Amino acid sequence: MKDNVLFTLIKTDKNARTCLCKTFRGIINTPAFIAVGTQGTVKAVSPDELKEMGAEILLCNTYHLYLRPGHEIVSSLGGIHQFMNWDRTILSDSGGFQVFSLSALRKIDKNGVHFRSHLDGSLHFIGPEKAMEIQSLLGSDIAMTFDDCTPYPSTYEYSLKSLELTTQWATQCKKLQKPGQALFGITQGSTFKDLRKKSIEEIITIQFDGYAVGGLSVGESKEEMHEMINFTASLLPIDKPRYLMGIGDLKDVLIGVEAGFDMFDCVMPTRNARNGTLFTSRGKISIKREEFKSDRGPLDPDCECYTCRNYSRGYLRHIFLSKEILSMRLNTIHNLHFYFNFFKNMRKCIIEGKFSEFKSKWEVIL
Hints:
This protein has 366 residues and is α/β, with parallel strands linked by helices. The chain folds into 2 domains: 6-266, TIM Barrel; 281-366, no CATH class. Helices cover 43% and strands 20% of the residues. It has 15 helices and 16 strands. It has helices spanning 47-53, 62-67, 71-76, 79-84, 96-102, 128-138, 156-175, 193-206, 222-233, 250-259, 268-274, 306-310, 313-321, 325-351, 355-365; strands spanning 6-13, 16-23, 26-30, 32-36, 57-61, 89-93, 106-109, 112-116, 123-126, 142-144, 182-187, 210-213, 242-244, 263-266, 277-278, 285-286. A hairpin with a 2-residue loop joins strand 7 and strand 8.
């Protein structure tokens, strides 16, 4: 395959679109939900279960795997695919967001970021060169450029400086791109439209295999987030994958797809599952509620996942309150199945020219 990612536009419904992204390890149908396997595992489920649900791509994280067990260890054990027993596409987040969100100390200079590990407080440094080295040794199919995730709120001056660092680091990452490994460029700019435009124009000039919008869902209002989603999508190349990073609330996903984004990732379905919040065709429910104590019905009558086929709400409530490990598994299986099915049906509606109806229906339910 000549290109690292073969991108084919299948159908558009206004700005919403469904596409095929082909990597060396398979096809990704978009709009696509990327399940988050931060430390080399999607919590509580196996790779085979993920495949049965329809997962075509997973995300792992540079920051976490660098700290534990170490990227050299992963490489010595066959690379990230063999390490986690996943033979489909893997995207590695470069670690920029985790350095921003998890580190107790974060000191930025032109070469990268000095930070303390959230695990043991030890001092570390990651810059574009280190981020690309880690991702190369992990052996992910799609690497991300190392960026400075701009905090919210930030002044215009700070956001501009952050943007300039992100562009500088993206240029360095491009020069270090490993043959056969796709590389997506990340754009920043906070909530300033002119800075978002500047960042996108600069990153496009470097020429990446795909383009991502970062620095959203970091504290800004929903209105500001949606404004930036709609503003940035139209500025990104039409012939490359568009990735809206860290956005997984399905109401926000609908806004993103309507604007023209293709890829989304979030821990929401798995984290909510572990906390007892479950997505259904009738809206979200908390399984711990008293009303489910004697409920014989399935979690969602319209769902065909393993959990809904085999267990009652009463049982799911019981094992959740009993803190049984099986509760995390069954809840996670259901929530992920719901997400993958949601995206599958959304793709179908785009092909049929019915995305607006799909969006209107789910905006009421979610």
